[in-house]
Amino acid sequence: MGFAELRERMVRELVERGAIVSAAVEAAFRAVPRHRFAPGVPAAEVYGAPEAIFTKRAEGGRAVSSISASWLHARMLEAAELAPGMRALEIGSGGCNAALLAEMVGPDGSVTSVDIDPEITGRARRLLDETGYARVQVRTGDGAQPLAETPAEGWDRIVVTTGAADLPDAWFGQLAPQGRLIVPLRFRGLSRTLAFAWEGEHLRSDTTVISGFLAMQGQSAHAPRSVRLAGPEVRLVVDEGQPTDDRALRGAFATHPNERWTGVELTGSEGLLPPLNVWLAGAVSPYGRLRASSAAAERGLVGWVPSIGAGAVWNDDSLAYLALRRAPGEGEH
């Protein structure tokens, strides 16, 4: 199957699943040769991969740059609500998303892409030039810091393509009064891509997408830490410097659990858990994510928790987390 056919199939599938809903985003996806931004990767994988394609790894194999999954690119662009003539800032360069932004703002708009890694910006510059997007400006620097090229009125759109642990002051100062900020935000162990717009003097989110991104580097870098509760199989992921007594929590986890089931039954179609997790992360402190291997659950070390982890709260020497179980059958108690 040729490049055009692969791209058409990708677009058709994104429309069918609701990731693409607008004609503008659909046109951008049809125009950008996605495979050109992942040289060396089979085109069928570039257009069909359900998750990100990694384009650079650090020593030890840790991924530091990638092309986001096509469905996530689409959802972020839909949330950005771009229009011709807008001035867009991308934080986290790869080339492909900048090309999509350039298609949407058109020749009368502008796109500036910033990344802290000169190797990544050099690669992005080369690939954008080779694919006909020389009008995209590429800069090397810390995207969490003020950018000299910021328009006097601010950026109409700021699209962040790297995981952030906070909203730096520079983004508030650089966003136009009618602007929108799209950012993958990690807070208390959760990762969500949020779309913000001004409401008075503060930003309010009106769109949430479940997603994960490679962590931001530079002054805003902030890595979570893990408290091992039962070796590597069960751990508590703690973000934002929340206090823990690791030894006391391990002792608490080793005691006999006290189970209280809510009686709420899920079929899998309600979409209840994602908004519940967001609410808990914002309403309860401290809050983190308990992660466990399937083997740990099978051996009874923990209740069943999703692969993305379960919401957890704790104090000095006790721990509670949300677990799932198969609904009791008829006649069972």
List the helices and strands and how they pair.
Blueprint: H1 3-16, H2 23-31, H3 43-48, E1 53-57, E2 63-67, H4 70-80, E3 87-91, H5 96-105, E4 110-115, H6 118-130, E5 137-140, E6 155-160, H7 169-174, E7 175-187, E8 190-199, E9 202-210, E10 225-230, E11 234-238, H8 246-254, H9 273-283, E12 288-292, H10 294-298, E13 310-314, E14 319-321
Parallel strand pairs: 3-4, 3-6, 4-5, 6-7
Antiparallel strand pairs: 1-2, 7-8, 8-9, 10-11, 11-12, 12-13, 13-14
Describe the structure.
The protein is an alpha/beta fold. The chain folds into two domains: 3-220, Rossmann fold (3-Layer(aba) Sandwich), CATH 3.40.50.150; 225-321, no CATH class. Helix content is 28%, strand content 26%. It has helices at 3-16, 23-31, 43-48, 70-80, 96-105, 118-130, 169-174, 246-254, 273-283, 294-298; strands at 53-57, 63-67, 87-91, 110-115, 137-140, 155-160, 175-187, 190-199, 202-210, 225-230, 234-238, 288-292, 310-314, 319-321. The strands form three sheets. Strands 5-4-3-6-7-8-9 form a seven-stranded mixed β-sheet. Helix 2 crosses helix 5 (96-105).
